Amino acid sequence: HRLAMKTSKKKNPGVAVTAIVTRIIHGDSIKGSDDLGNYYNTQAELAQHQAINRDGWYATNKDWWEQDGGGGYGGSTDEEAMIGDGGGEADGVEGLAFLDRLILESSSKNNSKKLKFARAIDAGAGVGRVTKHILLKRYDCVQLVEADSGWSKRSKTYLGRKRAARCTFTCSRIEELDQDSDDTSRIDLVWLQWTLQYLTDTDAVETLQNLAARLILRTGILIVKENRPYGAARQDRFQMDTPGVSGRYDITRSDDHHRLLFQRAGLTV
Q: Which of 43, 46, 55, 110 is a Cys-bridge partner for 27, taking CB atoms 3.0 to 4.6 Å apart?
């Protein structure tokens, strides 16, 4: 399965990145720190710490998304609650442009592996921002997968009756999505944005494998957009926020860190 990767400095639109992985990423090269001052010398150290704290961190994140007043990042709109600022529309414009470049790139290749535009999955959909601004503009129907039942229900109102009629709504954590819950042979595209950051590395790999297994062979594409280290932070080090300090679990991974997860999931970038 092919994977198209987009990166961004926190919530700002990023530069589209498409490349072929020609080198092997080793876990010993992945390093970083958390907001408690702990330093991790390898990805294995990080994974062990994540496994110990996983259930507690996920429970805190669940409460964070469900809190009174809308949950998430707050703000005056559902989109601000999703991403933490008012840049949702601009992000949608940039995301649609990225998708169109991918479509153009595919169509310009003189082969039979043309992209199809019947069905897409919005994985970790939240209120349906990506579905509204991007996916429904190019795909016939979209399956929104969202773990929080409140946001899943609210997405129907957010999208409006006509858009919602072209969608199906699945309330499930993406790493626990039942492979038998939908027809897994006809998904043309999966869009996964600002979602892996809330998962442990082990769950992120399982999620990527699970979603990739739903794609049409040869032409199916999984698009991932995640944050990367920014500002004064080292670009080759992950930054992990923990509930005790930041109020939620969240990890900003480096480019190589993401590529290690893709590699372990068996994806081609």
A: 43
